[in-house]
Write a structure and sequence with these properties.
Strand content: 25-35%
Radius of gyration: 15 Å
Order of helices and strands: EHEEEHHEHEEE
Distance between the termini: 34 Å
CATH topology: 2,3-Dihydroxybiphenyl 1,2-Dioxygenase, domain 1
Oligomer: single chain
CATH architecture: Roll
Number of strands: 8
């Protein structure tokens, strides 16, 4: 068993696509438009083109309970998902320079360093750097 697709609910697929590709530097993997205006829209890391895909899911527009759940998770301060980075501080600085709103600055928490940002589409996303035991 392996992870192929993770779903991130987004309030606006076009806005989410722009954010995830222009700011986070993901690349488009799949883009299939449906009759109802929704899309099967996935992005992947440029470092793992055949790796797990992030589905920019229009669920909040299509299924009201998802909108309620997404809002509750956001307001509780819980990240929807996390992405690994090589250097949390460097990625934080790069994203801040691009105007990304962060809720937390990079902070060491045991074996990791984390920071959490707003993906502009209803989610808190966490970036995580694994720290070496050799520090």
């Amino acid at each position: 068993m392996k992870v192929k697709i993770i779903s991130v609910p987004v309030s606006d697929q076009a806005k989410a696509f722009a954010f995830y590709t222009e700011k986070l530097l993901f690349v488009k993997k799949q883009d299939v438009e449906f009759d109802d205006g929704n899309r099967w829209l996935t992005v992947v890391s440029p470092d793992a083109l055949d790796g797990p895909e992030v589905l920019l899911e229009p669920a909040p527009l299509s299924f009201e309970p998802t909108k309620t759940y997404q809002k509750a998770v956001f307001e509780a301060g819980i990240p929807w998902t996390q992405f690994d980075v090589e250097d949390c501080q460097k990625e934080y600085d790069r994203l801040v320079e691009l105007g990304v709103e962060f809720f937390t600055e990079p902070e060491e928490m045991g074996p990791v360093k984390i920071a959490t940002f707003n993906d502009t589409c209803g989610n808190r996303i966490q970036i995580v750097e694994g720290l070496s035991d050799e520090r």
